[in-house]
Amino acid sequence: MIRKRRSASCRHRWPIRLARTVLLAALWFSQAVRADSQHDFLVFLSAERFETFSASEPELEGLSNRATADFLYVYNSDRFRVLGEYIWSDSESELERLKMGWEFDEQSVLWFGRFHAISNYWTTEYHHGQYMQTSISRPGLEQWEDKSGPMPSHITGLWLEKDFSPNARSSLSLGLAAGLAPKFVEDQLVPFDVLEPESGQDLSISTRLVLRPDALSTNQVGVSLAHNDIAVVSESSPELADLSAIRQTTLGIFSNWQLRDWRLSTHWVYFDIDMKYFDGSVREDFVLGYLQTEYEATEDWTIFGRVEVGFGEDSSRYLQLLPAFIAHRHMLGVRWDFAASHGLTLELAETSTQGTESMHDSFKEFRLQWSAVFP
Amino acid sequence: MERRISVRVQLAKFLILVLIMLSAESSWAEATVVLVTGKGSPIEHISSLDIRKAYLGILVKIDEKTVHPVRRRDDKHLNQIFLQSVIAMSQRSYERRLLSLLLRLGTPRPVMVNDNDALVQMLTSRPIAIGYMWKSDAEADDRVRIIKVLWQET
């Protein structure tokens, strides 16, 4: 009996041991290669006022005032990198990313650790750096797991990034990632937590191909393909009582293009969902996407708008498990950049969340935010 | 007596003119920005595209070694010229671009130094480092070598 308990305890503690070993190895390695090393530390700060206007109270983020601090630390040596990102806010305190990268040749990096899912375009572009994104809100499609995001945002495992340069000016990047997918608990996806590891996750595999016709500009177009085996904690909610697993396959296409003062970013994802119940399975598919346009009126002022829509998602059983998922949104906003690195942004939107039945819950949003980065 | 005063006035005017011309010549000589490296650096030539790449956070190698770009924090005018003529971006766009690469991939930003002396020290301690300065400053310091002219006032 005692032996069994020990064995179970050991089984649960292996990720901690592994994480410790990797951290020790990283520290040793960083000492070994520190001759040509560089450290960077950034703090992204933001404070937001959020109001909704509707007949019924929408089941949304819950906080009308929110302050967030995102701490980013990066260590670089000639061939070795460590990146850590920790977020603190009124509602959460979490190690978002902790990854170690080895540049085994000039154009290839192998990352190990917890990273943002490479199939999520917005997430891999802005991460938690609120100051870096023009808008205050994120598209519902690219929302974080704990904000009813439909796709896994955090994966713990391996990620290989390889760059090919067809010529001196353009670049083609291939990303391959495999690791632990989040599991479904209550009404959200819950990713593997490096600091408080728990077992029960299944596999996530994904790939992404990005073409930058001009490697020196931010213009890019890409495709992604991902498969996530999402384990379900059936006992966590009556809604999940008969559900044992969710198999999610996504195919996405995205682009970010700037032409003079205009910038257009868009991401469309086809979802194939297989809901595994104890007495059978239900298969469904739908498409979610958004189009965001930005106009740089002056160097300091930017006007922007975003349309978020879905096709075939109204009656999705999977999305009904995520009642606060933003299904539709028509948003307009303006941003003022001032001083060296401060932004003040205002956003107005007409929004619908998925709701628990086939009818969406509609309401209006008002957001005002200050964001900055230091140093 | 009046004649003597007139000669003195003319001489003074001439001297003032000479001084103005000399100072104009000196500021003209300063209005050239050059790319520099340490005296012992193996860098002989680097293309404009590679300079731009290095300062935009894209890996550039010379003799199998990574080129380390160094930025100046102190001289606003010099920085403005550098950003306009070499990077072809506004200060804000450039800073955002570097932040984005750091946030996404952990790509290090160019090292920032506070003055000319710190730049020279950085260039001499890292053999594959490049930096920019006024030509007059580069010519006056025998620890650095000019690789190419980046900008010249016309």
Brief overview:
Chain A has three helices and 18 strands.
Present the secondary structure layout.
The complex is a heterodimer of chains A (375) and B (154).
Chain A: H1 2-32, E1 38-53, E2 65-76, E3 80-89, E4 93-105, E5 108-116, H2 121-126, E6 154-164, E7 171-180, E8 183-185, E9 188-190, E10 203-212, E11 220-231, E12 243-259, E13 262-277, E14 280-296, E15 301-311, H3 317-320, E16 326-338, E17 342-353, E18 361-374
Antiparallel strand pairs in A: 1-2, 1-18, 2-3, 3-4, 4-5, 5-6, 6-7, 7-10, 8-9, 10-11, 11-12, 12-13, 13-14, 14-15, 15-16, 16-17, 17-18
Chain B: H1 2-30, E1 32-38, H2 48-55, E2 61-62, E3 65-66, E4 68-72, H3 76-87, H4 91-105, E5 111-113, H5 116-125, E6 129-134, H6 135-140, E7 144-152
Parallel strand pairs in B: 4-5, 4-6
Antiparallel strand pairs in B: 1-6, 1-7, 2-3
Question: Overview of this structure, please?
Answer:
The complex is a heterodimer of chains A (375) and B (154). With 375 residues, chain A is mostly beta strands. Chain A has one domain: Beta Barrel (Porin), CATH 2.40.160. Chain A has 3 helices and 18 strands. Chain A has a 16-stranded antiparallel beta barrel. Chain A has a two-stranded antiparallel sheet with strand order 8-9. The termini of chain A are far apart. The relative contact order of chain A is 0.14. Chain B has 154 residues and is an alpha/beta fold. In chain B, the strands form 2 sheets. Chain B has a 5-stranded mixed beta sheet with strand order 5-4-6-1-7, sandwiched between helices. A two-stranded antiparallel sheet of chain B has the order 2-3. The longest helix of chain B is centred in the first third of the chain and has 29 residues, at 2-30. Chain B is elongated, with a radius of gyration of 21 Å. Chain B starts with a helix and ends with a strand. At the A-B interface, strand 1, strand 2, strand 3 and helix 2 of A face helix 2 and helix 4 of B.
